[in-house]
Amino acid sequence: MDTIWIVALIVVAILFVAGVALAARKRSDAKRDERRVEARTHREEAEATARRAEQARLEAEEQADRARKQQEAADDLRRRADEIDPDAPVEESEQGPRR
Questions:
Q1: CA 89: distance to chain centroid?
Q2: Are 80 and 96 in contact (CB under 8 A)?
Q3: Rounded to 10 degrees, what is the CA torsion of 78, 84, 86, 91?
Q4: Which residue did the predictor score with more confidence, 25 or 89?
Q5: Is the pTM of this model over 0.70?
Q6: Taking the CA atoms of the chain, what radius of gyration do you get in angstroms?
């Protein structure tokens, strides 16, 4: 009779250990799934931030291009004004007649 109780206790202990192991595995799987969801969220946020950054970079390049063109136009107007202004100082390299 003692042998039956020992075998029964061993079976119960094995079932208990198996149950604990199964519960631990389920918790581990649940945590892993949570981390996957969190990682996916971070990746989506990173992609959205990267798209906004690229858009801002393109807009900045366009604005810089417009600024360069405006500066070139201002420089051209300034040169033209210097060419036609009889009171503008003449650089030695220009030595040619003024209009």
A1: 52
A2: no
A3: 60
A4: 25
A5: no
A6: 40
